[in-house]
Design a protein that fits this description.
2 domains; 13% strand; D-Maltodextrin-Binding Protein, domain 2; alpha/beta; four-stranded mixed beta sheet; 447 residues
Length: 447
């Protein structure tokens, strides 16, 4: 687990690099890839690769758009490689990949979330990438160092990171805030709850929430809210089994604060019946004044929202909590996901899988992601400033002074996360208490 200070430095270096690059125009044909169609390519042996991912064609996430583009380029450059691709929604994918793992029937290339990394390595389902990456220092050195740390398990690199996420940003409509008399974004928890009450009293849903797939309340709200109460040292103690418990008062306090928001009407009543795409629709229609989501929503908002919504949307993070152990300048974040390779691959098939993963995580993809308002795990070298949305520049600027805390579902075990995510749905509708949910999570943690 990286320290918050180290994460701040790593992300800060990326922000500086991107800011510097933004001042330059894109050089024509810089680093242009070799295209397929040569006699050597046409005579190469035919190879079939299976791939499982979350690269939905309907996604407006800039990182997904960039990786889809890279995948199409790879196919053109490697006409001898036939890729059978299965793209699924996030929650469906997580279930499917565990089912395939249980049957030892893994795809050749697949997306791996950090919380599954230890289990997949222990069961020899993934190929450690250390030797492969060391043989290509240009590829290895292009990554933000902390992203590689996120997927180093027992000294082995189990996946090539695909992104550098911040999962708990607050997108808010400043025009609505101004209209109801909230002149600046709240800087304390009391000011935040007062703002929720004011927005509610003026007929707005304060916070649009789409928790149908269960991860949004945890990854996009609780990961950061929990840190405000517990501090990051508590989480490190949890992960390293050094004595902290989910039943500790600060974590229970975070669960209570989340439930209190729901009780005061902060969220839409159908929060457990709609997903994160639908929560953004509530915001675009000006029925909601805020929503919590990660940096991927910047590109989605830029693609989907009416112009007046884009003009009035700004970013914030949760304010400080009185008496909390966490810092106010911390946001939950990290690599979270990587591309992994089936441990059973050898020969030409292994080489094709390695080439595909390099294409999906290399500097070309990073440049493409930046132009689509997303941060890859690799530092971009040359991207077109004119394609970048103002909100993405705002995002880059705000992160110069922020640190990173762990994303719960990228670091904790699947059993703990399943218990937490299911329980949060009940917590939000009053079906369980903070104390009971904390106990349930602790029981899953101990077992």
């Amino acid at each position: 687990m990286r320290k918050a200070k180290a994460s701040k430095l790593a992300l800060g270096a990326l922000i500086i690099a991107m800011a510097a690059l933004s001042a330059c125009g894109k050089e024509e044909n810089a680093g242009a890839p070799q295209t397929g169609g040569s006699s050597a390519a046409s005579s190469a042996p035919k190879i079939k690769l299976s791939m499982a991912d979350r690269l939905l064609e309907t996604s407006t996430d800039g990182a997904v758009v960039a990786r889809r583009k890279m995948l199409e380029e790879f196919k053109a450059e490697h006409p001898n490689v036939e890729i059978t691709q299965e793209s699924l929604q996030d929650s469906t994918y997580k279930t499917k990949i565990k089912t395939l793992a249980a049957g030892n029937d893994m795809p050749d290339v697949f997306e791996l979330i950090g919380s599954d990394a230890q289990m997949f390595l222990d069961n020899k389902l993934v190929l450690p990438l250390d030797d492969i990456m060391n043989q290509d220092p240009e590829w290895k050195n292009g990554f933000i160092p902390s992203t590689l740390n996120d997927f180093t398990v027992n000294g082995k690199l189990v996946g090539a990171p695909m992104q550098m996420l911040s999962t708990s940003l607050i997108f808010y409509n400043k025009a609505i805030f101004d209209k109801v008399g909230i002149t600046k974004f709240p800087s304390t928890w009391k000011e935040f709850t007062d703002a929720v009450e004011t927005l509610k009293a003026n007929g707005y849903t304060p916070i649009a929430l789409g928790n149908k797939e269960k991860w949004v309340a945890e990854s996009c709200i609780l990961s950061e809210l929990g840190d405000r109460y517990t501090g990051t040292d508590w989480f490190n103690s949890i992960k390293n089994r050094q004595g902290a418990k989910f039943t500790d008062a600060p974590f229970v306090g975070a669960l209570k604060a989340l439930q209190d928001l729901s009780k005061m009407g902060a969220f839409n009543s159908d929060m457990n019946s709609i997903d994160n795409n639908q929560q953004r629709t509530l915001y675009y229609n000006e029925k909601a004044a805020m929503f919590f989501e990660g940096d991927w929503a910047i590109s989605s908002l830029n693609s989907e929202a009416p112009q007046n919504i884009k003009d009035n949307t700004h970013l914030a993070i949760l304010p400080s909590v009185e008496g909390g152990a966490g810092k106010a300048n911390v946001v939950s974040g990290g690599a979270a996901w990587s591309y992994a390779i089936n441990a059973n691959l050898t020969g030409d098939k292994l080489q094709a899988a390695v080439d595909l993963v390099k294409k999906l995580t290399g500097v070309e993809e990073a440049n493409m992601a930046a132009e689509n308002n997303a941060v890859a795990a690799t530092v971009p070298t040359d991207y077109d400033k004119s394609k970048v949305a103002p909100l993405f520049n705002e995002y880059l600027a705000m992160f110069k002074d922020l640190e990173i805390s762990p994303i719960y579902d990228a670091q904790l075990t699947p059993a703990v996360i399943d218990t937490m995510n299911n329980g949060l749905q009940d917590l939000l509708i009053g079906g369980t208490t903070p104390e009971q949910l904390a106990k349930d999570i602790q029981d899953a943690y101990e077992s």
